[in-house]
Amino acid sequence: MLSVVSATKPSYRGRTLGIIGLALAASNAPAATAAVPQGNFVASTWAVGLSGGQDEDFRSNAGEAALTSNANLSQNDFTLDLLGRQGTRAIDSLNSATASATRVRARSTTGAFMEATSGMGTIGGGTTGNARASVRVPFMIDAPGLTGTLGTLQVPFLISGNVDVDFGMPVTPFAPWPGNSSGDGRVLIDLPGRLVPTPSGNCIAGFSYCLSISDSGISRSVDGSVPGVATMEMSFRFGDWTSYHMSVETRSAAFANAVATSQVATSAAANHGSSSSWTVRWGGITQVLTSTGDVAQNWNVQSLDGVDLSVATPIPEPSTWAMFGAGMLVLLAAARRRRTASLSATKR
User: Fold this and answer.
1) Is 326 left (phi over 0), alpha (psi -120 to 50) or beta?
2) Spatial distance between the Cα atoms of 39 and 328, rounded to a whole number of angstroms
3) What is the pLDDT of residue 320?
4) pTM surpassing 0.85?
C-alpha cells in the first residue's frame, strides 16, 4: 500500500459550484495512484555441494514487508575402497538474504574438509553458496512552486561487511603430495543514479561496486574495492512518482583435495573455507536541488507506508555480525570433529 497525500475537500454551494469545485480539485490532485510504480522485493539463496546435493530458496513480492531467504547444506560422505580404506568428504554452506525497503543484506559461508587414508589416492570435493537481495521502491518528492520541474536528490548509501577467505592448506603438509585446496568470496553491489565519485577499477557489468578474493592455498589475489559510503545523485521530477533500486549479492566457495599415496604413513587431509557478508543501507536524503542547482526548500517525500526516506536506516546489531563472522570457523571446526569421530569409529 502506498502513502499518498490526500487533497482537502472544498465546501460547495449548489450543484454548479460543486461541479466547478470538483473540476478544480481534480486538476490540482496528485497523479492517480494507478500510475504509481509498484515496489518489488526479491531475496534468493542457493547452495550446491557433493554429488549434486543442493538447496535453493527464492522469494519475491510487490508488498512492503521484508523478505528473508535461507539455503543451507551440510553433507558427510564416508567412502570405503575395495581394501576397506576410508576417505572422508565433509562440506557446509550457509546462505541468507534479507530485502526491505531501506536495507538489503546477503551472507554466504562455505567450508570443505577432505581426508584420504594411506594408499587410497585422491579424495576431493567442495561447495558453493550464493545469496542475493534486491529492492525497487517507489517514491515522490514535491515542494511548493516546483511541481512539474526537474530536480536532483543526493543520498549516501552505507555499506558494511567483509570478504574472508581462509588460507587453506593440507593438514599434513610434510607428507608426499598431501593435496591442495582453494576458496573464493565476492560481493556485487548495484546502486541507482550517478555515483559520486565515479567508481574506479574493473567490475562486472551491471554492478556499481565489486570485491573478489581468491586463495589457492599458496597465493591470494584481490580484485576491486567497496567504499564505506557511496553517495548517489538521482534525477527526478517534482510531483511525479519514480523509484530507486539497490541490490547486494554474495558468493563463497571452498574446495579441497586430499592425496594419500602409499608413502603417506596414516592419512592426508586438506580443508578450506570462505565467507562473504554485506549490508547496504539507505542513508537518508541529504539534499534536494532544483533544476537551477538551488537548494529546494520545504520539500517532502512520500513512499511506502511506514517508510521514511528522509532519514538513515539503523545500523545492524553488532551481535549479528559477530555471529556470522564466526560462521566459517564453526564450519571448519565441525568438519574436523566429524573427521575425529569417523576415525574413532574405524578403530573400534
Assistant:
1) alpha
2) 35
3) 43
4) no
